[in-house]
Amino acid sequence: MNKKIFICFTVALAFVSLLILNGQLREVKIREENVTVAYVFGEPIYARYREVIVNSSGVCYLSLDKLMKSDGSLKRHFILIFEACGDLTPNKPFEFRRSLIIDATKNITRLKFECGKFLYEVKGSIGKAPDWVSCIVRITGEGVERVARNVDGVVVWNDTVDLPPGVYRVDVSIYGVPMDKLENVRFKILLDVGYEISKDTLYDLRYGFKENLLWLVEDFNSLNNWSVEKRESAGYAKIVDRFNGRSGVLVLKDSVVKYKDEIRIKPPFRMDVGMYLPHTCYGILSFGFNGGDNLEIMFDMEEGKVSLYMSTVCLNETGRFGKFCWDRIDRGIEIGWHDLSIDVDDNGNTSFYIDGKFAGSMKLRLKGIRGELRIFASSMLDGLGVDYVRIYKL
Known about the structure:
- Strands 1, 2, 3, 4, 5, 6, 7, 8, 9, 10, 11, 12, 13 and 14 form a 14-stranded mixed β-sheet that branches. Strands 15, 17, 18, 21, 26, 27, 28 and 30 form an eight-stranded antiparallel β-sheet that branches. Strands 16, 19, 20, 22, 23, 24, 25 and 29 form an eight-stranded antiparallel β-sheet that branches.
- The chain is 2% helix and 65% strand.
- A hairpin with a 2-residue loop joins strand 7 and strand 8.
- It has one helix at residues 199-207, and strands at residues 5-17, 29-40, 43-54, 59-63, 75-88, 94-104, 108-122, 125-128, 133-141, 144-151, 154-157, 161-163, 166-176, 182-197, 215-218, 226-230, 236-243, 246-253, 255-259, 263-265, 269-277, 281-289, 294-300, 305-313, 324-332, 336-344, 349-354, 357-365, 369-379, 384-393.
- The protein is mainly β.
- The chain is elongated, with a radius of gyration of 27 Å.
- The chain folds into two domains: 2-206, no CATH class; 209-393, Jelly Rolls, CATH 2.60.120.200.
- The two termini are 37 Å apart.
């Protein structure tokens, strides 16, 4: 099983500027960080952090629509960070004020603030805020007022902060009297904020895309429509005139090829693939996973097995609505050429065929594919052969 898990550590940061209303509100920054840990059956397992940073003394604005992504959860969260930095004079009182207006009206069903941390950084060292400095966090709006204060470095609310949709203002005050002279001292208040979106919004975010494909026919006369990503120094991806009795075949060994364009398609559709499965070869044909659902044909010839894997978001089962779901079909298969087909009907019912024979159906319904078409092969001896890939609307 370990050979099917490919560890790949990556970090990507993105900075997004938000709306400034009527020229009166300051810009607030959102930092989004994805840390990819591993790929299991082609699915990235990662932790996603969204940080909203308020470091201006003016009033800042945040619309929760800007934080919405097309992942599969109704529940979202981000870390709200209030920052203040400056030089402090001994025995002289100081105060920093920060304010943020949160628009949680459109598509939002719930807004919740958890306890947080009050941190202090000076000369590169960071820890809980000392006793000579305090903070107050106040939330007002929609007839609600909640107050939090720091207790030994923890920001504690006076009551549960579980709010209905609305517009709320968060005011922060950091104040105290230092005993020593401090230069470039930095204070941070970190709050974990959760919110929920409606079911209709989740569906629109994930499956509201427009289709761009009626049919795709790739008979591999060339690699003009593909980019080659080699995984190993000895890996290759090339077009071969004749390969095990067929002409015009893509042959891969320890490499990945990716179709040049994103594919967006909804049921009903069909995918047909012709593959030569060699001895001691493991590989995946992956289709999707850029916001929509994902289909994968996986094979492990050491075990003589081929599988169809599907991941989606449950939108029909009320008990699991918004939860990540997956299903798979496993069948035995022999070395040689095989014609594999995936048939998706109008209702998203997905069936798998091997050499024209029915191999099984998924319990889950597919709702839409959006993403990349990739083929990966790892082999100790012979390469994987791909004769054709055809995708078309029914």
